[in-house]
Fold:
Amino acid sequence: MEIIQVVGLGIIATILILVVKEQKPMFAFLLAAATGVMIFMFLMGKIGTVISELERMARSSGVEMIYLKTILKIIGIAYIAEFGAQVVRDAGQENIASKIELAGKMLIMVLAVPIIGIIIETVLKLLPS
Amino acid sequence: MSWLSGWLKEIIMVVLLATFVDLILPSRSMERYVKLVLSLLILLTLLSPLIKLLTEATDLKLAGAFNRINQQSGAAGPSLRQIMNQADQMKSRQQQQSLEWAAKEVAAQMKEQVQKESGKRAASVKVVLGMQEGREAGGSGGQPYIKAVTVVLQPEEKPSSKQDQPEGSEPSGDIGIEPVKPVQVEVDMNEDNHSDSGNAPAKTAGTAIDDDSGEQAKAIKRMLENNWGIEQESIVVQTGPSENRKL
Structure:
């Protein structure tokens, strides 16, 4: 029942933050960030099992591993960027949060570049020169 | 028909993966971008028989492209080139050290030979080793050769009884004999040093050799040439004063 642990941690952190927030807003933010990191780390292990299962499936069904790697990279970039943006947004820095999201989007787009290149190359070869 | 079933499996798997990724995406802000890449991947899978027909090894090409992108971002620690540079530096340092050591050994042997053959006491023998040009970068392939030899003979008025004394042991109690100076060995691998060291013996050769020791110098030169295969113009024999000893 790990969800209970996570929810309990979240609730306790929320109460603590509410208590502390009046006196020390700085500590409240640090507490929130630390809680977020803890939950994130906890999820990391779970994601590992999912990824290994995905890898097994992909290998058995003959999908090229580079596709799977690309997909996993996308997931990772999306998660990390989202997490960082949320932490920064909690601290009230909406600008930086949007910049982090922009960086995540750009990195995902970079992953698309080689695929587009190969598709375009194929199409160009199809056309009579 | 096996390729057809493989292709279908691949398509199904990629679409499933894309759906899965869509589900576990953390927020909607990245959705469009992720969907673009995923749809490109699905398109690539759909086109894969065609691509295989036209170009070989799609996955290799894709992996190469991704690797290139990763290398451009430079996030993967020291690159291979840096490591190779470090290895080259270490190799050249090692080579230099071994050259120095070899020069010392050769100088010691020459000193012994000069003493034995001519009966004169050589105060110091300086040997400059060089690597043969052209193959220097190859490291182990380069052949070391003796670039220049300088033999400094002790003046005549030294007491002859001390000739038998081994060079390494210092005369402890004697006052009249100065201790043996350390053998000066320099290894120059650069081109400019090469020309420099070529000039220096020629400059001092005319001044240092006395008239009476000319014969002896010639003998020593001949002996060294025979024993070591050195050309005579790269051998300099000097007699005497200790300020000439250091080139």
